[in-house]
Each structure stands twice: as structure tokens, then as C-alpha cells.
Amino acid sequence: MSLTTRFAPSPTGPLHLGHAYSALLAHDMARAAGGRFLLRIEDTDTSRARPQWEELIYKDLIWLGLTWEEPVLRQSDQTEVYDAALSTLAARGLIFPCSCRRRDIRAALSAPQEGAPLAPGVYPGTCRHRPMSDRQPGDALRLNMRAAVQSIDMPGFTEGGAKHAGTHRLDPDRMVTEIGDAVLGRIEIETVSYVLASVVDDAAQGITCIIRGEDLYQITFLQVLLQGLLSLPTPAYHHHCLIRDDHGKRLAKRNDARAIAKYRAEGVTPQDIRRMVGL
Ligand code: GLU
Fold first, then answer.
1. What class does CATH assign to 1-77+244-279?
2. pLDDT at position 254
3. So where are the chain's domains?
4. What are 36-50's pLDDT values in tens digits?
5. Is residue 8 within 6 Å of ligand 1 at its C-beta?
6. Which atom of ligand 1 is nearest to the CA of 215?
7. Is 42 in the pocket of ligand 1 (CB under 6 A)?
8. 39 lines ligand 1 (CB under 6 A)
């Protein structure tokens, strides 16, 4: 099977050096292996995605010297595909509607809990008993993690990035206590979460190796579980180290100082960018 990689940015701000590193690495690995490199625009978060950022993504990547196959998949063009995946999970009783707001979750987490302690931020399960027939506009749709891990044999994945290199099998108890009932979508405002949309698209596009930043490593466990639940293939993963600013902080989209467009305007060359990210 030929190597197929992708770069899947969300158009919610300018691409910075960290994105350039992911894109160049995924592109170079595919080219070196005679494989395929795809670009996917992950614009499911309609509150933050903007056309001007999407335009800038194309401009930056062309300037960096990358080429990709057309047509580019834009997630906002195919929400029915994600709805179908959510419906598949819901039909198996693995999704429940949740009306908790952040402060409800905080309050529930500060009360005494039964069972194994949950990691910080893990949903306490307040709405888990609610059937889908009870869903209301504005509800989040959450995965019932306990039911999900009990419904299939635990899948695993191989990781090629230096920090976590090796084969990892999902541990059902850790999935419950460390990830919990993740939000996979939201009713009425037509949003599916990035975690689910990305899994559906990686399978549909035949991606064989996912190259992305170390900050997404933990999400991989949830995504591999979703692949198992939806009977989709699990690609190989390669999480690369993060590019940090001069103070050692990881770059964020709002960190315009490291934006590719800014470097370009200052006369920096694509070769300089490659050197800056260590390629
Ligand atoms: N769209 C995600 C982001 O821009 C990346 C998704 C991925 O590489 O899996 O952070």
C-alpha cells in the first residue's frame, strides 16, 4: 500500500512555523516514498473558521513549495457524512445528549465521586442516563465511553514519533477515567467535533500515516477508538515535537509573530523556513 499523508489545518488563524513543520514533513515523507500527499480544510468549527484564513493557507503552502492532489476536501461541504457516522454510533446506544454547561460540570466534579477517580476535565456523567429521544436544541452529543469500550475489542496503533515510539493498545479503564464521555457533535447548529470528522475523512481519503504535532497525541486514543467503533482502518501515527517560541511556549494561532505570512513579508525564504524547523 503506498504511503498517503495529509495536512489538515483548521482555517481559524494564520499558519505558523509549527504548521509549516507538519505540512513539510507530511509532504516530504509522501514524496520520498513515491506516495500521495493530500490537503484537507477542517472547517467544522463555524464559529471560528473564516474564508480569509483558508485563502492564506493555500497561499502559504504554495509559497513553501508544496503541491497536493485536487480537489481539496473541505469538511463544511460534507456534514451529512459526519451525521451518518454519529447516527451509526447513536443507533448502537453509544451517544447521549448533554445539556451541561461548563459551570454544571465544574460543580459536579467538585462533589464526591463514586468509582475510579477521573482525570481533570473528564466529564462526570451527569446526563449519561438521558436517551437520544430526550435531546433538546443546543445539546451536546457525547460518547458513552464506558459502553463504547465494552462494545468492541480494544484496538491499538503504531506511533513513529520519537517521544512515544512503539505500539500502543488502548486500555479500557484509562479511556474511561482519562478521556471519558467526549463530545462528538452538537444538535441544531450542525457541528460535528473535529475528532470525529477527522477520523471519518482519514478513512475515506485512504490516509495511511498521520503526521501532526505532539499536542494531538492524547486525542489519538479517542480517534483510534472511534475507528474501532466505526469499523474503519487505523493508520500509522507520527507525532512530531512542537516548535516553541523563544520563551519555550508552544506556538498558537494567535501567535502572529511566528506566522508564515509575516516571515514571507519580511523576505524570509522557504528554505529559511525549512532550516528554522530543523528540516
Ligand atoms: N485540524 C487540526 C488542527 O488544525 C489538525 C488535525 C489533525 O492533524 O489531525 O489543529
1. alpha beta
2. 62
3. 1-77+244-279, 78-197
4. 999 999 998 888 999
5. yes
6. 10
7. yes
8. no
- Strand pairing of 140-143 and 183-186? antiparallel
All three cell numbers of 198, joined, read 477527522
Pocket test residue of 56, 61, 159, 212 for ligand 1, highest count of atoms within 8 A of CB: 212
CATH classification of 78-197 is 3.90.800.10, yes or no? yes
Q: What contacts 14, CB < 8 A, 6 or more positions away?
A: 53, 56, 60, 253, 256, 259, 260, 261, 262
Q: What is the pLDDT of residues 209-261, one digit of tens each?
A: 999 999 999 999 999 999 999 999 999 999 999 887 667 676 666 667 689 99
| CA-based radius of gyration for the chain | 20
Does residue 212's CB lie within 6 angstroms of at least one atom of ligand 1?
Answer: yes
**Residues 104-119: pLDDT tens digits?**
888 887 777 777 788 8
CA 185 to ligand 1 center in whole angstroms: 17
- Tell me how far CA of residue 127 lies from CA of 104, 116, 120, 124, in angstroms: 11, 18, 18, 9
User: Which residue's CA is the closest to the ligand 1 atom numbered 7?
Assistant: 8
